Amino acid sequence: MRVVLLYPTWTGAYGIIAHFARRNSRWPPLNLALLGAILEEHGHEVHIIDGEVDGLSIPDIASQAIALKPDIIGLTAFSPFFHINKDLAYAIKEIDASIPIMIGGPHITITGKDSMSSAFDYLFVGEAEYSLPQFIDELERGGDISQVGGILYAQNGDIISTGEAEPIDMTREYPLDRFPFPARHLLPMHKYQLGTLRGRLPMTSIQTMRGCPWKCIFCASDALKTTRVIKRSPASVVAEMSQVVDTYGIKHFYIVDDVMTLWPKHITEICDRIDAAGLDITFEGSTRANLVTDELIERLASSGLIRLSFGLETVNTEMRKTMKKKVPLEYYVTANRILNKYNVEALNSVMIGLPGETRETVDETLRFLEAQKDISQANFAIAVPYPGTELHTMAKQGMEGMELLSDDMSEYRRYGSAVTKVNELSPEDLVELQNEGFARIYSRPHRWIPMLRKHGIMGGVLTLLRVAKYLVSKLVKPRAVSGHVGDPKHPNTV
Question: Which of 152, 324, 386, 420 has the fewest Cβ atoms within 10 angstroms?
Fold first, then answer.
């Protein structure tokens, strides 16, 4: 069968923030490339249209997809972009309603039949590495799709569920080795670049393991079964890296693992094999601050580590307990210092609007960041209560001062929008505090050069405009906040 997989553009919804999103989040849709490779193994013809990297509108993607004369079209969706995929599906149906459309992804797994509509013919629940090829095989030969687990579809006015998707085989030491390398030949690989302190680098994403053993309240760990951690063999990872270097000349890898250093022996063996293969590459990833050690970072940096991210979220002790963030605060100070020692860029992520948030707790976090000279970068996101998370339950039930104000997924964005009220903080207040956070952190001159290297001249201009707007607002409308910088009773210390 001819299968066309679509990835619509999503950054346009972020307004001025779209510049930063495009420079830092235009990654290859690795999930579609992996499924494409699996379908090719089963003898099917696959095409992928990446509307984000090609800057295509919904009508453009729909017309290009239909021009390929597909037997079926596939989509995948996270919650904040489900509406975009739904609009795209309707646009395709308006042109040719005979083409079946299937959709999977985290949002579908979490919401199930609640996502069923006339735009979609089939919903895929759970991991689709086994169910998708089985489904396409059955569809091609006119077989019984009800025998394939993990599918929802409408029949005679009823929604049929085929039960649980077949789970990935956990009896193997490296379950993910069962699958082929992602089909990057289906993507415009020359278009993917990422801003770093070494400039914009051609890049691709890559996975070495899947899952995270912890249960922070903003993750849908139970609904998505992400606490199950499975690995690829280091040999497989480095073989894929070598293929990417040889085929595309790409030498920067974003490791998409939730916790890249969860097993130090695993990532260090990958580095040993990178060195043995003579690969001159760079890479980055995410981890927890308490998993950053001097010995480990020295080892990873010697094989190409140039950036590491971790979630600080908030420095308020009670809020950290509520969100189940069990990493002691001192580890963040140490982690930033260690990374700076080995010239590895540290990216600290902060969330504004978590349960229990007040202006004072936001200011507490900002004063901490302002005082830490080892912290050169921090990202400020507004906490979003995505479906399937404990945070969503807390917001719906009004716990810890939270109030959920909207069920419209198109508003569930981390930047420039908020769907909750927390204590006295309205959505407008949260957006204002987000802008203040960026302005206060990047008003420090020692952070300007890292910001310019990563975001470019335009990003620098936008950031400095935000800083200027904040400074003007303080002159015009000063606001007394407990512990604010300059308050003699609350000096800028932590």
Answer: 324
Amino acid making up residue 480: A
- Confidence at residue 439, expressed as pLDDT on a 0 to 100 scale: 84
- Same domain, yes or no: 310 and 370: yes
Task: Say how far apart CA 91 and CA 62 lie, in whole Å.
Answer: 6
Q: Is residue 176 part of a domain?
A: no
Q: Does 446 lie in the same domain as 332?
A: yes
Q: Does residue 299 share a domain with residue 224?
A: yes
Alpha carbon distance 116, 118 (integer Å): 7
- In-domain check, residue 182: no
Looking at residue 416, its pLDDT comes to 85
Say if residue 157 is in the same domain as residue 220.
no
pLDDT tops 60 at residue 417: yes
E strand segments, 244-321:
252-255, 282-286, 305-313
For the cut 60, the answer to whether the pLDDT of residue 319 exceeds it is: yes
**3-class secondary structure, 436:** helix
Residues in the chain: 494
Give the separation between CA 259 and CA 313, rounded to whole angstroms.
Answer: 16
- 430-446 pLDDT, tens per residue? 999 998 888 888 777 76
What domain range is 405 assigned to?
Answer: 192-476
Is there a single domain that holds both residue 310 and residue 371? yes
Specify whether the CB–CB gap between 447 and 398 falls below 8 A: no
Dihedral sign (CA 71, 76, 82, 84): negative
Counting the structural domains of the chain, the total is 2
User: For 304, which DSSP code?
Assistant: T
Strand partners, 196: 199
* Model pLDDT for residues 115-161, shown as the tens digit of each residue: 999 999 999 999 999 999 999 999 999 999 999 999 999 999 899 99
Q: Is residue 349 part of a domain?
A: yes
pTM reported for the whole predicted model: 0.89
**181 within a domain of the structure (yes/no):** no
